[in-house]
Amino acid sequence: MKTSFLLGGIAAIAVGAVFASSATAGSVKTFKLFDHPDGSDNPPPYGIRLDGLFGDSTTTTFSFDTAEGVTMRVMEAGNGSIVINISGVVYGGRDVGTAYDLAHAGTGKYELNYTYAYNVVTEGTGWRVDPQHMENGGTFNAIDVNGDEANFQFNLFEEPNTGNPFKFLQDDHRLQNQPEGGQGFWVGRGWHTFVQGQGVAGTQDFLFIGTQIVPLPTPLALSATGLLGVSLLRRRR
C-alpha cells in the first residue's frame, strides 16, 4: 500500500503541475461542491461513496460539506484539451444508518485530490469523460482521523467499462423532487474504484452538486476599467 500510495502521490503531483502550468493557456472555471441531497444511503449526506474502503463490506461515505470544503476546477486549454481537478477536505467513514461509526479508527477528515486528465469533453454547459480511462484518478489521504493517519492513505482510479463515466451537467440528475431542483445546480457523478484493474463489492462513486464561483475583479482589472472609463469620458468631451 505504501509503495502504491507513493506512486499515486507522485502522479497526482505531476498532474497538478501540468494543470497549474496549463492554466495560463486557456480558461479556468471554478465550482464549489456540496453533498447531493438524494444519495442512496443518505443520511448522512455525502459527495463521495467508497464502500469497503476499510477492508470490509460496510457502506462508507464522506461529506463534502466541511468547513474547508471541496472545489472543482475545469481548465480548457487553447488546444482543445480539458482537465478537471476535484480537491478539498471531506469528512466521514463507516455509515451505520444515520451517522458515522465514531468509534472506528478510519472515521475523520480526508484530503481528496482527483484529476480527470484523459478523454474529457464538453456537453452542454458541463463536461463528461468519454470513454472512461484508468489513468484518471488521484489520492484520498487521512489528515485527521481517530487512528493513525498513515494507515488510511488510498489511491483512487476511474473504473473503465462500467457505463457510468464521470459527468458534471446542469441536468437536475436526481434533483427533481428536491429543493435544489430547478435551481441551476450542476450535478457531478461517476464510478471509480480503489482497487486498480478490478471492481470491488458495494458502491464507489461521486454524487455531488456544484455552483460556479465567479471571481471578483482584481485591482488591476478594476484599475484598467477605470482608465477605460476616463478615456471614454475624455473622447466624449
Describe the structure.
The protein has about 240 residues and is α+β, with helices and mostly antiparallel strands. It has one domain (about 1-235). Helix content is about 15%, strand content about 40%. The protein is built from two helices and 13 strands, in the order αβββββββββββββα. It has helices at about 1-20, 220-235, and strands at about 25-35, 50, 60-65, 70-75, 80-95, 110-115, 120-125, 125-130, 135-145, 155-160, 165-170, 185-195, 205-215. Strands 1, 2, 3, 4, 5, 6, 7, 8, 9, 10, 11, 12 and 13 form a 13-stranded antiparallel sheet that branches. Strand 4 (about 70-75) and strand 5 form a beta hairpin. The longest helix is centred in the N-terminal third of the chain and has 21 residues, at about 1-20. The chain is globular and about 45 Å long. The model is unreliable at about 1-25 and about 225-235 (pLDDT under 50).
